[in-house]
Amino acid sequence: MFSSGRRGARVTAVLLLALVLCVGGASMAFAQTDPYSNDKPIVKPSLITRDADPEPPSVDPAPPTVLPFTGGDVTAFLIVGLMAISAGTLIVHRTRHTGDRS
Fold first, then answer.
1. Which domain holds residue 86?
2. Rounded distance, CA 27 to CA 21, Å?
């Protein structure tokens, strides 16, 4: 099926790819361990005190606002929809014509 030269080149390429992936995985595994840092961090708790009777925050109610739905939005949706329909039509057209030639 394959000549010995092409098969040998393919086997060499696969072995080289496997070696690169193994070395890459090993380097990531070694990066997780830090041989120079054997000290664990020391965590000292701190006490947070609060006021006994805090004042509630004052909030001014804002009037409700709604963004307008403009003609530009409708045009954008229309263009995207037409592009999707065109792409689907083109894909179906090409697959039917390439299937007829076989």
1. 73-102
2. 10
